[in-house]
Amino acid sequence: MGHLDHAALGWLTPTLSYVMACIGAALGLRCTMRALGSGGRSRRNWLITAASAIGTGIWTMHFVAMLGFSVSGTDIRYDVPLTIASLLVAMVVVSAGVFAVGYSRDRVRALFLGGLTTGLGVASMHYLGMAAVRLHGAVHYDPVLVGLSVLIAVVAATAALWAALNIKSPVAVTLASLIMGAAVSSMHYTGMFAVSVRVSPSGDVLAGATAMQFIFPLAVGLGSYLFLTSAFVALSPTTGEREASASAQRTVEHVAS
User: Which is it for strands 4-5 and 70-71: parallel, antiparallel or unpaired?
Assistant: First the structure.
């Protein structure tokens, strides 16, 4: 058996990955709140932004954490198409959950179906990302821990969608984001602790890209997207602010006339 290290770079990767998960959750919650207060094309655009933020945050969390993953006795490479597919899966399933909540009239049913769909999608993203790992040896999983990680993903996704429907204040959004980030991180590391590797030493060159060659640049790019989108959302007026501004403008025009 090869010795697995989930934090080969120390606390840097667990901490940074948690931060990325929290940013994605916070941005997704804010955008979903904006969507529920809007209509038409504006609602659709806010929901798309919310889904992309949450999906990007979860995927970036996973692969930033994977930068600290190492196995003694073998190098590690990543299959590029499978890694990109895991990102697309995260985006698609989160979109399904967010749109279900954003447009359904039956909030309870939408919350259940959206949480289940999104949670299973997050778990699929994780294990598809793990399927992209290339090393000298065979990877095995503890089925009990795999099942636990999927359960955590479903509960975390449902909690996030519930928060999007019920939380309004900035302080509550921040707290919910910290909890969501912890839940996503817990899901990831539970899934990682389910992994064991039987190393088969070999001099053959592994196919695929190293984490620094592929994952790090992509994670940085997606992380930058989250930060820039956060700035856009922070500077974009809320529905209440737009209504107050329009009301003030009408008052000024009335006085002027």
Answer: antiparallel
pTM of the model: 0.80
Q: What are the structure tokens assigned to 132, written together?
A: 């992209």
Mean pLDDT of the chain: 80
Using one digit for the tens of pLDDT, what is the confidence trace for 113-124? 888 888 888 888
Indicate the domain borders of the chain.
4-256
Gap between the Cα atoms of 164 and 101, Å rounded: 9
Residue 112 region by backbone torsions, left for phi larger than 0, else alpha for psi between -120 and 50, else beta: alpha
Three-state DSSP class for residue 19: helix
Pairwise CA distance, residues 251 & 257, whole Å: 10
- Torsions phi, psi for 116 (to 5 deg): -65, -45
**pLDDT tens digits for 24-55?**
888 888 887 788 777 788 888 888 888 888 88
Where are any strands of DSSP class E within 124-177?
133-135, 137-141
* Residues 121, 123: Cα–Cα separation, whole Å: 5
Tell me the C-alpha distance between 171 and 194, whole Å: 35
134 φψ region: left (φ > 0), alpha (ψ -120 to 50), beta (else): beta
